[in-house]
Amino acid sequence: MKRAFCFAMALTMTTALLAGCGSSGDAGAGTAPSAAGGGASTGAAAASSSAPANAAQTEGGTYYIACGAPFTGDDAQYGNFFKKALDMKMNEINESGGINGKMIQIDYFDDKSTPKEASNIAQMVTSDSKYIAEIGSYNSTCVLAGAPIYQDAGMVQMAPTAGHPDITTANDHLFRLQNSNDVEYTWLADVAVNKLGEKKIAIVHLENDSGIVLSQILNEQIPAMGGEVVLTESYVQGQVSDFSSILTKLKAAAPELIICVTSYNDMGTMLQQAKQIDLGDVKWVSSGMIYSDDFLKLAGDAGEGVYSMTIFFADNPDERIAAFTEKYRSLYNENPNYFATNAYESLAMIEAALKNGADDRASLYDELLKIKEWDGETGYATFDDNRMVNRGMTVIKVENGKWVVAPENN
Q1: pLDDT in tens, the chain (410 residues)
Q2: For residue 244, is the peptide bond before it cis, meaning its omega torsion is within 30 degrees of 0?
Q3: Which Pfam families match (predicted)?
Q4: CATH architecture of structural domain 182-310
């Protein structure tokens, strides 16, 4: 039976895929070992192998899976969300006896949220026959950089949070676990104009692949819905820490609502700095990138009233979601967010495919293609024939220093 993915009235998306934004800068060659603790932490150079790619892709009693994500740099927190959830799921599998008598081993590779590192990792991983699949990366730019390499190797690439509309066409072995940017950002425009009822809207976004898509979609959809875009500003992540210039432009534009899609670190900093500039009675809305306990700490009282949206809400009363949240909290003393849950479900889907008879790269792909409905521990999703996911969304907001379901869902 299908379970509702969100306990509030969720808007069910009818297109595919979701958003993952991040830095698109290039930090240069050479992949450093992951900084995250626990599990295997492997640098790209150490992971290379001369074994032929068509060799048996399980060694001894182990299934090997690679995870490429940022573990250092501006986006390291998102890679660590991946790692916490993947370690949790890997340990659950192994402690229950493994799959078909074999253990799961995840090796982590630090792509620093840069396409050059992601490409290097893809070359290393695909050339090593022991790896049966790859999970990652956090952002669309890195996923797109590695996609043709995984495609040529016939290796499954699970993209937990990347949302650029083109990632599934870049690699027909790629499965994504969130709705695409075009779906998410159209919905974001609807929230701003129709659910929150504001017409004069400003846009602030990261200058990367997903940011370009965001600007295009919002500048098309907001006017089509009866709103007006009074300002669009972008910046390069990691190059700006003083947002006074952007905030001054926002004040001059006098928006009723600001859509700001960036990392939770930058969002928290921007809100704190906005307290020094009187922007008036303006609403702030962001994507699910800011849904985390850390954002609440960084933003403090400046985050009060901020809206976000998510495909996973930790305080959902659904029994299985509540149970998942509790075991995650018991391990890490924090709430899970969709970066963690999507990574967890990526491995859970691989687990299901292996239990159904997959044993190498090709058969894993074939078994994953058979999954059209996924009723996981963290929510319900459907997949179409192009490996595009359809998931419900919920509007949330900060109220009294906590994330709650926003009344605007109704």
Answers
A1: 444 333 333 333 333 333 333 333 333 333 333 333 334 344 443 333 333 333 334 556 899 999 999 999 988 988 999 999 999 999 999 999 999 899 999 999 999 999 999 999 999 999 999 999 999 888 888 999 999 999 999 999 999 988 888 888 888 899 989 888 888 888 889 999 999 999 999 999 988 877 888 889 999 999 999 999 999 999 987 788 899 999 999 999 999 999 998 888 899 999 999 988 889 899 999 988 898 888 999 999 999 999 998 888 998 888 999 999 999 999 999 999 989 999 999 999 999 999 999 999 999 999 999 999 998 898 888 888 888 787 888 899 999 999 998 988 76
A2: no
A3: Peripla_BP_6 (PF13458)
A4: 3-Layer(aba) Sandwich (3.40)
Q: Which of 126, 78, 119 is nearest to 340 (CA)?
A: 78
Domain boundaries, the chain: 62-179+317-391, 182-310
φ, ψ for residue 356 (rounded to 5)?
-90, 10
Nearest one of 87, 141, 150 to 121, comparing CA atoms:
150
DSSP state of 34: P
Amino acid at 281: D
The one-letter amino acid at 302: A
Amino acid at 156: V
- Closest-CA residue to 163 (of 55, 15, 4, 306): 15
The token pair that represents 63 in the structure block: 């299934």
Residue carrying the six token digits 């998102």: 78
Q: Do the domains at 62-179+317-391 and 182-310 have one common CATH topology?
A: yes
What's the CATH number for 62-179+317-391? 3.40.50.2300
Q: Cα angle at 191 between 186 and 195, to 5 degrees?
A: 140
DSSP H/E element including 68? strand 62-69
